[in-house]
Every structure is written in C-alpha cells, then in structure tokens.
Write a structure and sequence with these properties.
Elements lengths: L1 H7 L1 E2 L2 H10 L6 E2 L2 E3 L3 H14 L3 E5 L1 H5 L20 H9 L3 E5 L12 H17 L7 E3 L7 H7 L5 E3 L28 H7 L6 H15 L6
Parallel strand pairs: 1-2, 3-4, 4-5, 6-7
Helix pairs in contact: 6-7
Amino acid sequence: MLRRIQRKFRLLSGDEFAQGIVEGRAWRRAALVTIDDAFEDAYSSFLPLLRELAAPAVMFVPTQFLDEPARAPVSYAFDPAKYRPCSWDQLREMAADPLITLGAHSHRHDEAPELSPQELRADCVRHGAIFERERLPPARLYCYPRGKFSTQAAKVLAEFYVAGFAGAPHHRLDGDLVNMAIPRVPLRGSDDGFFGWLKTGGFVTREEALTEGLKASLHRARPVTGQ
C-alpha cells in the first residue's frame, strides 16, 4: 500500500508539513504518512520499508507506554509479549533519521475530551518533559488518542502544537481550529483489497462515518429491559 501511495502522491515529511502549517501553505497531490502508538514493529518492520522506499513518515508516541510497557495504548485485552513498545534507543535512532518525525500521542493515552483543560495541559507538559529527558526533539504535531477530540481540547492543544490529527475522513473542526483536527484516512490490515486500493489512490471513503452510524443504530435498536 505504501508503494501505491508513493506513486500517487508526493510524500511530505513531518517537519515539512509542520512548517507548511505555520506558513499557511497548501499542497496538491501530497500525502503525509502517519503511524500511531510506537509499537516495536514500527522500528523492526516498517522503518526498513520506509528506508527502502526513501519514504518519510510521522510516528506519534504515547510516552507512558515506553516507560511502562504493560500500559499498551489499546482498548482491549492484549498480550504484553506481543504488544511491545519501541525502546528509547530505537526511538532516538528513528528521530535521527531524516525520514522520521516524532509526534505526540499524549502521555497516558487518555481521550482528550475526557480530560479537563488543566489535566490536558499537564499531560502535554509531561509528554514534552519525557521527550526532553530522552534527548528527543520537541513534538510539533499531535494525534488524538483514539481520534477523539473536542473544540475545548483543540484550544488547549493549540497552545503546545501546530497541528492535531483526528481519526477519520469526516472528523474535522472549522475556523481558527481547522488545523487542530486534521482528518486522516485509516489503513487497516483488512484494507489489502479493493478498499485499500481506493484509499491509497486518494478516493476518500465514508467508511468511518457509515461504521459509526451503524454502531449507533445497533445501540438504539437494543431492547431495554425493565426491572
């Protein structure tokens, strides 16, 4: 899929994208590849492919996960032996590679709208302090845990980052906060076939909106049992 994206678009580096946001630039037929969560296979499997193709990418790091590997940023039962984080040495190697830009994925991986402004600021400060401790460049880009955002959260995060990334093509904010909830097109293992071909060709689908609508309909249709 990455090869197809590279054929169809000019791939931006994270630094180029962040600077372009600051300068108010716009791009045509360009794409930004993003990776969430800093799992070890981002280093062992994906990084060699990026280097082979000379393809840039942004990796969003939840710092608590690296310090406490038992706290994987997933919302389901997991095997700690399988869901391992990158090591700090691996992360420093990636940060030194011009193809890789490290972004923030919060410290604790709490959903931003569930935090008060004070809690969200504290989380951002903690993330930045750990990057500084590990001699990593300050993050300029942020990815919302599980793609969940709100106007209030976006206003707080704009104090720390130049852009924030949401979870799906139909997720966005307008006005002065437009860059604090940039839509993304998620690629999954199940997208190897036709849907993956559509997505990597730039045909943004309504898959996520349809999925959310279906889940909401199923929830409303559940029978309510009285006492």
